Structures are given as C-alpha cells and as structure tokens.
C-alpha cells in the first residue's frame, strides 16, 4: 500500500479539462483582491485593535509578510503545475497522495468555513442597510441560533440567500463570475479610497500612544487569550486568506505561467497597502479601547466618531460588496479543489462532472454551495473561524516545503516563475506560519485534530480505494506480472525436456 505515490507534472498538465481559459492578469488580481479585502477591514479591525492597539498595522504587516513569502512559493508552483487544485495539486506532485488528500481536505474546510463566517457578517451589514430605509426583518431571521447574546435568533436568512445567489453565478460560467467579481471589486476599492480621503483629516496622533500597549505577546491578568502584535496577526491573518484561491483558477487562465504569479503577488501588495493605511487612520481617529463599543462594525463606529454620517451608507454598501466578493472567491476555490480531487478519484465522480453548457463543475458547485448556505444560516460558527486560519497556515507550510523539495528533486523542471531567495524564502514562510499558528488558542488545535482525523477516515474508506493513480499503478503491476509470466513460459518451452521435467 503506497500512501505516498506521486503524480508527475506531465501527467497533471495532460489531465487539463474543458474549462474555458478566459482569465487574465487583471482578472486574477481582482480575484485576489476580492478574496482578501472584505472581512479584514470591515469586521476584524475592531477585534484586532483591541488585541494589539495602534500596533495593529504591524500585525497586518506581519501577516502580509507571511503571506508574501508563501505567495512567492505558490507563484512558483502555479507556474510549474498550472492546473486546478492549488495546494492539493502541488502536494500531490511533491509529497504524494495522502499528504495531498489531507491538504485538500483542509482547504475544503477553509473555504467553506470562511464563506459561512463571512455570510454572518454580511447579514449584519445588510440588516443595517435595510434599517436605513425603514425596513426591519423579523429578528429571529437575522442570525443563526445563539449568535447574539440576549437576543433570540434562529436563522440567518440574508446570509443563506446571498450564498445561494453567489453559487448560482459560479455555476453558470467563469465569464459571468469574472465580470461580477471585477465590477464589485472596483466599486469596493473606490469606496475604500473615498473613506480614506474623507477621514484622514480627523486623525489625532495622540490616539496612537501607546503604540503597542501589549507588546509582541502577553497575557492580561484573568484572561486566557493572548494579547499583542502576534496574537492580533493570527486573528487578522483571516483577512489575507483567499489569495491562494487564485491558483485554483489555473485551468481557466490565459498563459498561467505568467499571469498566475502576477495575479497572486499584485493582489497581495495592493491589499496590504490598503490594510495598513486603513488601520492607521481608524486607530488614529478612535482610541483603541473604544473599539469595544462597536467591535462588530468598526468602520461604522469610526465614521460616527467623525460625524460624517452620510458616509455611513456608502461604507455599509462597500462592506456588503466587499464581503460578497470574499464569499464568491472562497466558493469558487472550494468547487475547484473538489473538482480536482474528484478527477483524481479521491472524491466521487459527482464533484468532477463538467456541465457541457456552462463548462463548470455544476453539480459540485451547487452541492457545496447549499451546504455552506445551510451552515451559515443555522450554525453559530463564529467560534470556529480560527479553524480557517490553522488550515490555511498548514497548507502554506506544505506548499513552501514543496518548493524546497522540488528544487532538490526536480531542479531542471520547467518553471515559468522562480521564487527568489530559495531556500531562504520558503524557510521564512514556514517560520512565519509556525509563529502565527502559535498565536492560536488550544481549542482551535483540538478542533483541527478532529477534522484531520475525519479526513483520514474518508481517505482510507473511499479515496485510497478509488484513486486513479493507484488503479493505474495496479494495472501496470499486473501487466508487468503478465509479461514476466509470459517470458518464463517461453523460456520453459525452449528448455530441454529434462530441465522442464525437473522444474515441474
């Protein structure tokens, strides 16, 4: 039983399927920005400011540096193995089947939980937007059960509906997905720039003192949660999750060897600059302890502090658009991961069937879209969002280690992009990922181990038995045995009678 059987780069590329290649560098950059800029600015800056103070901008930089090193490794792999599947496909080439399956399993959890978590935040902003027009949904239908302390809620209806709408857009074709995402990202960026231009004049540098009230890492008396720059970086790392989904679009990208690395790196750079500027402005307008009053809607709280009430409507709209693009990219990446795993036989064929009309994995897209909508609609998953972080960081570690391994084992393989500074770059990516993982609480580790164990059960119960690579190896072994047997019979036929009789 070979659990570490590998696929070659050539066989991966040869399996490319009839998905339409329409995405260019601009589209991939918009896809990356769409995934990155959303929840980080409109939701997590509040919790991050309470954890790190004004030094939150350093936390964002730390998370960005981690993603930057990992992004360079992703870019090299994307140019080397330009197929769907992202870290799953890269691990299959570098380390073997069981490692690839577990990373794919992690990515499924990452994308689903992030999309479901963001749908909860989207619902909150949507309800506020409706209230501005005097429309009030029944409170029981505004959030999942147990989400809001002291308020009886049962179902997140707005979040449920928006996930289904996004799933529909994804299912009918990459062109529709591309246009929808590009338009929304451009609007979102325009709104963020408007916020910066209008509020920068209200910054009071005195609010930045002390700049780092909790240092790099500390525990406050009576608290079990760490405080400081590193724990805040572990929280806001959630903001950057999604750029790796860009590499999942390899089979729908024009000239993936060039455009994928550019899309990954451009989206990271643009998003990081905007995050740093936004956090400096927000913590400069409002003293960091005051974010506790509006931790779930920090941008709206900052606007109220400036008195620019007219800007609140615009920013609410930007938050809705921003979180919509995040969910769109996450659900897109999830469907492509499952598509790649199904094509390799590790998931049922159902997830890998390409619709002849839309040229998309139609059934698989709807299957996980509906599951994600149900999860976001009924389950309070706010306590699980750190699972997204640990799953993604694990994938980053595997991809970075994969670059080191492939440089050693396949130094002459074609690479449209080569990560600079190898082996230092992937080693630094691994180190930064481990630092951020250390900032997560122990409950997250326990939940991750449980999910990992479930993945092993699925692999041994289904994936290993249906693996196409395993079937091909088994067929090759059988053929070799047949050839060997035929050769032996031929030799016996030509042997002297006495020898044949003796061997009998």
Automatic annotation (TrEMBL):
Any idea what this protein is called? Amino acid transporter
- Indicate where this protein resides in the cell: Membrane
**Listed PANTHER family:** CATIONIC AMINO ACID TRANSPORTER 4 (PTHR43243:SF4), INNER MEMBRANE TRANSPORTER YGJI-RELATED (PTHR43243)
Keyword list, A-Z: Membrane, Transmembrane, Transmembrane helix, Transport
**Transmembrane is among the record's keywords:** yes
Q: Where is this region: Disordered?
A: 478-504
Query: Which spans are transmembrane here?
Result: 28-46, 52-75, 87-105, 154-173, 185-203, 223-243, 264-288, 308-333, 364-381, 387-405, 417-438, 444-462
What topology does the record note for this protein and the membrane? Answer: Multi-pass membrane protein
Gene Ontology molecular function: any one: amino acid transmembrane transporter activity
Query: Where along the chain is composition biased (Low complexity)?
Result: 478-490
Q: What is its main location?
A: membrane
User: Which InterPro entries has this protein been placed in?
Assistant: AA/rel_permease1
For this record, the Gene Ontology CC terms, alphabetical, are: membrane
């Amino acid at each position: 039983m070979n659990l570490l059987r590998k696929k070659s780069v050539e066989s991966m590329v040869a399996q490319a399927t009839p998905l339409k290649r329409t995405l260019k560098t601009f589209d991939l950059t918009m896809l990356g920005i769409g995934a990155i800029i959303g929840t980080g600015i409109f939701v997590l800056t509040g919790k991050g400011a309470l954890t790190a103070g004004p030094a939150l901008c350093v936390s964002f930089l730390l998370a960005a540096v981690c993603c930057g090193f990992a992004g360079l490794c992703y870019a090299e792999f994307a140019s080397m193995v330009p197929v769907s599947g992202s870290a799953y496909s890269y691990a299959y080439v570098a380390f073997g089947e069981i490692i690839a399956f577990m990373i794919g399993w992690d990515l499924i959890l990452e994308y689903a939980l992030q999309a479901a978590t963001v749908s909860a935040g989207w619902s909150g902003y949507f309800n506020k937007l409706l209230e501005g027009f005097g429309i009030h949904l029944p409170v029981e239908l505004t959030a999942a059960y147990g989400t809001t302390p002291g308020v009886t809620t049962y179902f997140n209806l707005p979040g449920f509906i928006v996930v289904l709408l996004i799933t529909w857009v994804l299912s009918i074709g990459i062109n529709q997905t591309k246009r929808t995402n590009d338009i929304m990202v451009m609007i979102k960026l325009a709104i963020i720039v408007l916020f910066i231009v209008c509020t920068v004049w209200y910054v009071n540098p005195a609010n930045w003192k002390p700049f780092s009230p909790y240092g790099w890492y500390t525990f406050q008396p009576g608290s079990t949660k760490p405080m400081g720059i590193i724990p805040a970086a572990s929280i806001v790392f959630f903001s950057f999750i999604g750029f790796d989904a860009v590499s999942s679009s390899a089979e729908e990208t024009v000239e993936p060897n060039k455009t994928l690395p550019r899309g990954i790196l451009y989206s990271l750079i643009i998003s990081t600059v905007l995050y740093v500027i936004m956090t400096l402005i927000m913590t400069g307008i409002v003293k960091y302890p005051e974010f506790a009053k509006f931790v779930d809607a920090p941008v709206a709280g900052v606007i109220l502090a400036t008195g620019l009430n007219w800007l609140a409507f615009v920013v609410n709209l930007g938050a809705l658009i921003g979180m919509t693009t995040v969910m769109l990219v996450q659900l897109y990446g999830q469907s492509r991961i499952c598509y790649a795993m199904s094509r390799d036989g590790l998931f049922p064929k159902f997830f890998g069937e390409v619709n002849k009309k839309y040229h998309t994995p139609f059934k698989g897209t709807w299957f996980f879209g509906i599951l994600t909508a149900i999860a976001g609609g009924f389950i309070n998953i706010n306590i699980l969002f750190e699972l997204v972080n640990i799953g993604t960081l694990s994938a980053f570690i595997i991809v970075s280690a994969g670059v080191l391994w492939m440089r050693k084992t396949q130094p002459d393989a074609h690479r449209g992009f080569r990560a600079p500074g190898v082996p230092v770059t992937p080693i630094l990516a691994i180190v930064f990922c481990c630092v951020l993982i250390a900032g997560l609480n122990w409950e997250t580790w326990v939940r991750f181990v449980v999910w990992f164990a479930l993945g092993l059960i699925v692999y041994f119960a289904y994936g290993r038995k249906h693996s196409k690579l395993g079937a091909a190896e088994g067929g090759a072994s059988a053929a070799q045995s047949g050839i060997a047997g035929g050769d032996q019979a031929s030799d016996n036929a030509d042997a002297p009678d006495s020898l044949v009789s003796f061997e009998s």
